[in-house]
Amino acid sequence: MTGPTVATGAPAAAVVQLLLADSRLPVGAHTQSAGLEGALAAGMPVHDVPRYIDARLRTVTLVEASAAVLALTALAPADGTPAAGWPVDPDPARRLAAVDAAWHARSVSPALRENSRLLGRGLLRLAARLWPDASAVRAVRALGRPSRAVVLGAVGSAAGLAPADLATVLGYDDAQTVAAAALKLVPMDPVEATSWVLHAAPAIAGMAARAAAVRTPEDLPAAAAPLVEAWAEAHAEASARLFRS
Hints:
- The chain contains 12 helices and no strands.
- It is mainly α and 245 residues long.
- The chain has a single domain (50-236), classed as Orthogonal Bundle (Urease accessory protein UreF).
- The radius of gyration is 17 Å and the shape is globular.
- InterPro entries: UreF, UreF_sf.
- Keywords: Chaperone, Cytoplasm, Nickel insertion.
- One of its GO terms (cellular component) is cytoplasm.
């Protein structure tokens, strides 16, 4: 069964940006806590959640957003020609594979890597339905099991998103995922959780600006978060859990 495809251009790009930041998008985001469930299980107090959001924005989220921007610039413009700074390679899938490999090398936790590829699969299914003829989507499908970051970059290319806008989507999504998960994990006022996201706005903007400046796989930040990664591994082995991550 096929459905309508998505137009490109500034108005469409603005809507796509909102869609990608919406947890109701059918890509499996409802299964995620951005590591919060594991963090709380390990003893992190709820009042430290804002600091946790900030730490993620400076580390794992920065790496993912930078990889998404790299994938976008590897394919921009929409015809699949790489942006300035990329080596000449006629195969866009190989350029995306280089981004995916760079992201993989900087993502220490096997649990986080596998979760990203599962989310990438759901997002790729959506992209294949909405942009079936986009060269960016065809290129990322050739990778097999790409990370979510690389698929997001391909979607950004197909939709005409700017690098900073795509990185902002990832920053907002990460903060909002933590806040939404907190409401299911601990008794608290929903307004307080919402305030966490708003207060993270400057950190999101700073992260997005840094990610948008990345130009080649060699420039991809290697910002590790040992506690986040350790909690992710422990959470993956937990016998009872509400979220996948």
